Amino acid sequence: MSDSRDRDGGVEESAVEIERPDPDGIDALVELWIALASDQRAHDSHIRPEPNRGVVRDTLARHAVTGGVRAARRGDEVVGFVSFELERGAYQTDETRGIVRNVYVAPEHRGRGIGSDLLGAAEAALADAGATAVALEAMAGNDRARAFYRRRGYTPHRVQFEKPLDRGETTESTAAEENDTHSKEDGVP
Fold first, then answer.
1. Residues 75-100 pLDDT 10s
2. Predicted model pTM
3. pLDDT tens digits, 23-43
4. In this structure, are residues 150 and 119 in contact, taking their beta carbons and an 8 Å threshold?
5. CB pairs under 8 A, 24+ apart, for 38-45?
6. CATH second-level architecture of 17-159?
7. CA triplet 60, 102, 17: central angle to 5 degrees?
8. Nearest-10 Cα torsion for 72, 65, 124, 83
9. Other Cβ atoms closer than 10 A to 36
10. Facing residues of 73 across strands?
């Protein structure tokens, strides 16, 4: 639980509680997700907030049923959330990875440890579910988010590259260069 501190360093009357939300009460989380996706547009995210409202509502409802979401609540107000799950894939790996999909705290509640508490709750739930490592993503241009995760012990593991395509443009490479760019996970020797 985070204690919210006022400007004088004293604890405000209402501390924030981290809780597993009821599946029927996820509308506040959907609104926070819309705010998160809207904020991420400033960092070149391609996700369109409003057109994804229905998908996000369904996804967060599923996470609420399966236990893969936590909400930060101050009194009656939901001020942040985290969503997460165990990674499910076809590859056999050395680690059982938990994936944190979203961490968000409303701007007026930031800087009080709520994001850290949410991330800690997700990590604990994932560890209880058998995860041995946790992965998450941040937009490359979101320096604040990347610094937040680094302060909590996260380090880059894989780097994703993106290139806009001009329909008339092609890129030539030699076979040797191409083979060097693929990972073993992609099935290329």
1. 999 999 999 999 998 899 999 999 99
2. 0.80
3. 888 999 999 999 999 999 999
4. no
5. 40/139, 40/142, 43/139, 43/140, 43/141, 43/142, 44/139, 44/140, 44/141, 45/139
6. 3-Layer(aba) Sandwich (3.40)
7. 80
8. -60
9. 20
10. 17, 78
